[in-house]
Amino acid sequence: MVNPLFDSLLGIHSGKNTPFLKLTDQRVITHGKFLEISAQVANALVQHGLVAGDRIAVQVSKSPEALALFAACVQAGLVLVPLNTAYTLAELAYFIENSGASLIICDETNEPELTNLAQTFGARVMTLNAEGSGTLIEVARTLPSSFLTVERNPDDLAALLYTSGTTGRSKGAMLTHNNLLSNAKTLASEWRFDKTDVLLHALPIFHTHGLFVAINVMLVCGGSIVFLPKFDLDEIIRQLPNVSSMMGVPTFYTRLLDDERLTRDLTKHIRLFVSGSAPLLVETYFDFEARTGHRILERYGMTETNMNTSNPYEGERRAGTVGLPLPGVDLKIMKPNSDKIVIPGQIGQIEVRGPNVFKGYWQMPEKTAAELRNNGFFITGDLGKMDDDGYVYIIGRNKDLIISGGYNIYPKEIECVLDSQPSVMESAVIGVPDVNFGETVIGLIVPKEGETPNIEEIKSALAASLAKFKHPREIHIIDELPRNTMGKVQKNILRNIYKSSLS
Ligand code: MLC
Ligand code: AMP
User: What is the pTM of this model?
Assistant: First the structure.
């Protein structure tokens, strides 16, 4: 195979007439048609002057054409840089500069300001709108519906996905063709996906979960997807009888449980519900089972590693655990800051190694060296333990991270904005429990002597620089931050004080 990822995802299906995407407006796009659209987009990208290895920054809504753009990148050997649609211009500037993207694809409403930005970095802009129109597609439509697949090695880059960090700026996780292919094949096989499956897809497609887990698994197995623009409870309830499986973050399941239309009857055709990206509460697992008879299959992954563990398809799905290491994945629980494994059952830092683990951070050799050991193990920053049967429990995080509705939020990024306000001496940002999002953000600020911070002004500053989902739900002014003898802010104390503060 000249390009194993492309060939395995798109090139080798016999079922070209099988529906691939079923849209809410009744349109159906077959696997064969999807291949043709992808080829046209690949032709448009190459005509634009892009060559293998070039990066394309993409901030677009969910659409079949947006998925075709991903497939086109794989076929043409280009590196996709998917970006959250909520990111502000300030956030985008960093990703575009850091990735060195030569082409930016965005919605036409953002075109004017992104064109200015692109010029600064010598990049160009094309548009792709939610309904599949835009300059990229206008060009693609005039071009052949076949494309000579570009040869790729397993170790070549397929995507750069930015993850934030506990210090400094976001890091681009370099994912190779083999990272994506090996994980998609493993998951399709472990979760028993085949071409008769229909997946309900309501996740965003700019993250590992919605793109590499959900889409790649369905491409590899040749099945179909009911493709929703976003999570919409009424639409999910309407579609559940038409599908065989759904993948979601825990918020999907808690929202479903809050609705009395979720019943055993509604879900009787489903063979698999998968949850991941954030902890699924044991209570949610049992409530869902009591209501529907289905045991949600929880798995654990990361941007840098794709999926690492999964509860079994057959066999016991153990509540409160993320299951067993996937075939090919080595998982160790290590004493923090050491190279020693903990005694079985004890809590330690989770490290993983396997074909799923990324190649390193884009142009950040020091950060790569700090997290990716020479022996191939990646230090995840998650704390966990393993029971006698090999089931992994995620106990907490060694990294200062908030997960809200499946989105990762690094407090440091918000603290930097708060600290830069003229009236603020210092700040701390914490996550507190939230019934809807699992965790939500609270900001605490200590004013400079004699200053009274204006919260509305601070909110405007946050709005100008950070995506909405990162904004603190509440900002409190306090006299001082609790610190330990080393001078480190004791966020556990703050979390305890503010855990039920939300009005
Ligand atoms: C939206 N908002 C959020 C939010 N999502 N706020 C905090 N956390 C979130 N996750 C805000 C919006 O800014 C808006 O603010 C308001 O909530 C309503 O917006 P919305 O678009 O209507 O939100 P909603 O549809 O309710 O979205 C919630 C959600 C969505 C949970 C369905 O966030 C989602 O799809 N999350 C999935 C994230 C995901 O795919 N994670 C995988 C990462 S990969 P306002 O003020 O304007 O009302 C990974 C690896 C792995 O972690 O293991 O999978
Ligand atoms: P991201 O960097 O967005 O890929 O998020 C990865 C992080 O999400 C992991 O390091 C974990 O902290 C968390 N995560 C993913 N899946 C689970 C899960 N099933 N349970 C608990 N945490 C999870």
Answer: 0.95
